[in-house]
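Summary for the steering committee. The consortium agreed at its last meeting that each partner would contribute one worked example illustrating the joint modelling workflow. Our contribution is presented below. We chose a case with several input lines so that the handling of multiple components could be demonstrated. No manual editing was applied between input and output; the record is shown as generated.
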Amino acid sequence: MCGIVGYIGEKQAYPILISGLKRLEYRGYDSAGVSIFNKKVKVFKKKGKVSDLDDFASKQDTAGTVGIGHTRWATHGEPNDLNAHPHESMNGHFILIHNGIIENYSKLKEKLIDRGYNFISETDTEVLANLIEYIYLKGKVSAEIAVRLALSKVIGAFGLAIICREEPDKLIAARRGSPLVIGVGDGEYFIASDATPIVEHTKSVIYLNDDDVAILSRDGLSLKTIKNDSLTPKVQIIDLDIGEIEKNGFDHFMMKEIFEQPKSILDTFRGRVSLDKMEIFLGGLYNVMPKLIEAKRIIIIGCGTSWHAGLVGEYLIEDLARIPVEVEYASEFRYRNPIITPDDIVIAISQSGETADTLAAIKLAKQAGATVLGICNVVGSSIPRETHAGVYTHAGPEIGVASTKAFTAQVTVLAMIAIVLGYERKVLSKKNYDELIKELHAIPTKIEKILKSNNNYLKVSKLYKDATNFLYLGRGYLFPVALEGALKLKEISYIHAEGYPAAEMKHGPIALIDEKMPVVVLAIKDKTYEKIVSNIQEVKARKGIVIAVVSEGDTIIKKLADHVLEIPETKDELCALLAVIPLQILSYHIAVLRNCNVDQPRNLAKSVTVE
Ligand code: G6P
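What follows is the complete predicted structure of the assembly.
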């Protein structure tokens, strides 16, 4: 949700800022801007993509070795040139970019108007720029002090990069709630919302914590809190390869990420699932394992696709380990006064590790004394730092806004947890435990096989790309997959789609079915196979179009359905990992055929750092 970059050093800032913004564009892409300091401050901003900004700004004088850049996902004020960041304070002393929301901005704005300030944008960010400037001029203090004093008056979330016109050899960065990483180079520093724009310049980074303020100059960095306590910067080396954030020959990141799944799942269980020893070992949960094994209740929280993975987790843990599980949208959980006890285990699932609602729900659960675990993809992000213990999914950077490989990695982690708990709690026999381990190992090869049918998916996609509605049906482990398939389609192709438990169809959605309605039915040979065959018949009796995901070699559904997409057989407990793949590919092709921007769908952002 909004991408921030900054640079101070000896190199030209503009190319670094633009290439950094392109890497962060998944965080927001409705407008973009840069500000460069070279004797005077220049600000260039444009509605639209970073490439629109570049078309405009590259024709201007962009020389300078200090600068900040921003790609926006609008919260306050529509996406236009005026509301785009950077924002200048009224008298031009401060220029800043901001990710987050200043919640008390209207009160602050009123006070500033009373003191003679005018506003040209509708943003909360301009209020902050003016507040800093007001304190700076009135108090005759340094830029750093003005920033810290202003931030102590602010309620809300911010990741900030700030230039002061009178102190041009400095960049000030500050964070509360919105992520910020500082890249440490040789006589140069980088600021970014995550490490992806930094990694091509340096692997040494400092992750800012809430209420940290960093003052960067070519000679060094000073780190302190908003309250002026000095801090010792902790430089870490990031393990991120530039190749992982390129498209590598694919037209879109989403397709690259779909095709990466055999490898990303392998990376998720690498070093954790051993066929030699026939065991699963989750180092990140080692200390909390006794508590987990004894747990009376597990609450899983997440948003979007991560919530869908959580639903699969509920089925897995209840089925294999017999521990009651509740799955909650983090945004509901945090505001609905939930009952949380110190005996509860809360598992927070998040690809980015930055989702504001999930982060707030974690804090709430911690306050209530629960043990909070994280399942996250981005190493060093806020959620793993906030939780008591956890498991990284190690799926590699996911850049396409529609989540694909993160989902299968999250389900893989949840499957590992459920299998270990099942065995330790003596619900699973050694034989079943071993069989599940072997089958988990076989999943990447089975996904490779599914990916070979890509052309088949393209053919089906061409037939239904103009449909206005889709229904997705599944039972048991495949109900959450139906939800995820519908989400994939609607978010990238803008076709309305609903996921439903197959049997629930009779209680409403069946009324929608006619000869124009494609119904994707997840109908593999599991224990509800006969039931789902009946559901397919119910759809066909109403002239619906059935696209069925079936087990290889199925002959019964082949006769009933309009199209079948075959997937290899697997154990019921792991079928979500295979069944979701055809749905991801189907939605990808349909979106491409409809000329939609697959990697950056309208109105969405990859990392939702506002509530
Ligand atoms: C956004 C993304 C989704 C993601 C959700 C939760 O809506 O577009 O792909 O599933 O946030 O994000 P998280 O990073 O917490 O998994």
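The radius of gyration is 25 Å. The first strand starts at residue 3 and ends at 8.
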